[in-house]
Amino acid sequence: VRVDYKLNMEGQEVPIDVAGLLWQCAAKHASDYLSGNHTPALIEFVHHLNFLRSICRWRVRLYFDGKDNPDKHFEDKRRRQRRVNANDDYSRIKNTPDYLAKAARIAKSFDIRYFVSKEEADPHVSYESMSKALTPVTGDSDLIAYGVDTKIIIVNSWQQGWYRIIDLESPTDEGEYPLYDLYKRHGKIVFQLYAGCNGCDFTEQKCGIKGIGYGKFMSIASAVEGEVNVRSFSLALWNDDAMR
Question: By the 8 A CB rule, do 46 and 106 touch?
Fold first, then answer.
């Protein structure tokens, strides 16, 4: 689906985790970017800002990453290694502080409100979205783990205008989406535990806990009596014969 006025957010304040957009702008002009010429990527960024403001008529609010989150050092190490091993310019792209600063100056010159988060922008965008009942735009589903419980727009390709919508208030039939059923009963802890078991930016191993895929996670979580939380899930995990 294309990112356009069909989202019906004209005149609304729209918080955007801008890291993904900036990365894609840089990746499109990877050779220039890696040589130190950020201008083509920043021009691309300006085109998108103009589209969102003038065509979509969104009241854009941009959220920039700050310092690296020390709790994600495992994932940072994995990403550094991937860039070192990369055989193409595209895979070596990283949003640098200089590039982010230039993009922030552009936002300021356009009179667009922008914010620089203490660390990654995900929790900041999540808080703003929840406290003001806004629909956030981002590049992945991480905001779910931070508690966003309504609608999230995930842009897969800014250039092509491809996006998907996760609506956590959407009515579904029991059993249609078992993980979503668990979420509706127990809240965001379900997604947090699932991410930890299957691997995420915070886990030492990319795969999370070896031996726990979707099926095993659902089996263990469904075996919990009462509220699903870290303690009750850990006990159910320990009592599962296959995981001992």
Answer: yes
196-220 pLDDT tens trace: 999 999 999 999 998 899 999 999 9
Q: What is the DSSP letter of 243?
A: G
Closest CA to 19 of 69, 86, 55, 88: 69
Q: Which two tokens stand for residue 203?
A: 């886990």
Identify each DSSP E strand in 94-205 by its residue range: 113-116, 137-138, 151-157, 162-167
Residue range 70-74: average pLDDT? Answer: 94
User: In this predicted model, what pLDDT tens digit does every residue of 142-189 receive, in sequence order?
Assistant: 999 999 999 999 999 998 888 999 999 989 999 999 999 999 999 999
Give the amino acid at 213: G
Mean pLDDT of the chain: 92
Alpha-carbon distance of 134 to 151, in angstroms, equals 8
Going 129 to 135 to 139 to 142, the CA torsion angle's sign is: positive
